[in-house]
Amino acid sequence: MTFVNQRQQMVAEQLETRHIDDPRVLDAMAAVPREQFVQLAQQQSAYNDSALPLEHHQTISQPYTVAFMAQALRLKSEDVVLEIGTGSGYGAAVLSRLAKRVDTIERIPELASQARERLKQLGYSNVRVFVGDGTSGLPEHAPYDAICVTAAGQTLPPAYAAQLKPGGRILIPLVNWSDAQTMTLFTKTGTELKKRELGSFRFVPLIGAYAVSPADR
């Protein structure tokens, strides 16, 4: 089976059957060649219903998780998005097909460099890759319509709300008292954030100056 056929099967069997029904998200997932974003030894597993390992003890999320987050953000074609945790660049590639521009920040320089080159070679010209502490966001390029965090934090870093436009959305997995991770959507209304929990997921830890609660710093 070709990678194109595997991709179509992934959309039909892993996404549509699990309530991913936004046509734009499904089209994006069907278009982005996931096999180009995994390690060479993992290419035959690129469309498995699972996360896969990357260098530096990082992971590329399972296709369903990427699609779920993209759908939950309710992106419009004119939106500008900040992604925290570039990894291989796969998530940014998916988001780039839904938004006007994606700024993505990665704390590991080697991963950022690889992702930048990969995205360039594949023609994702509306993605900019930065290196830095993702918990600080990118204040020099804010505000953003949406912020997508691909690692689990103990608390919501304050920079995100400050860098979000009115009506904007933040999606982040948060660790609760039992160490479970809950996907959490914040919507900015005026100066307040409305919170909605969307279910349990599993991510690598969010690392940075503001990844933990103030009492723990």
| Strand coverage percent | 25-35%
N-end to C-end Cα span: 50 Å
| CATH C-level class | Alpha Beta
Q: Tell me the radius of gyration.
A: 16 Å
Secondary structure: number of strands: 9
**CATH topology name:** Rossmann fold
Low-confidence stretches: none
The description of the largest β-sheet is: 7 strands, mixed
Q: What's the average pLDDT?
A: 95
What fraction, in percent, of the residue positions are helical? 25-40%
Q: What CATH architecture do you see?
A: 3-Layer(aba) Sandwich
- Helix and strand string, N-terminal first? HHEEHEHEHEEHEEE
Sum up the overall morphology in one term.
globular
Count of DSSP helices?
Answer: 6
Strand order of the largest sheet: 5-4-3-6-7-8-9
Structural summary, described in words:
The chain has 217 residues and is α/β, with parallel strands linked by helices. It has a single domain, classed as Vaccinia Virus protein VP39 (Rossmann fold, 3-Layer(aba) Sandwich). Helix content is 26%, strand content 26%. It contains six helices and nine strands, in the order H-H-E-E-H-E-H-E-H-E-E-H-E-E-E. The chain has helices spanning 3-15, 23-31, 63-72, 90-96, 109-121, 158-162; strands at residues 52-53, 59-60, 80-84, 101-106, 127-131, 144-149, 164-175, 181-189, 192-201. The strands form two sheets. A seven-stranded mixed beta sheet has the order 5-4-3-6-7-8-9. Strands 1-2 form a two-stranded antiparallel ribbon. A hairpin with a 5-residue loop joins strand 1 (52-53) and strand 2. Helix 1 runs antiparallel to helix 2. The longest helix has 13 residues, at 3-15. The protein starts with a helix and ends in a 16-residue tail after the last strand. The mean pLDDT is 95.
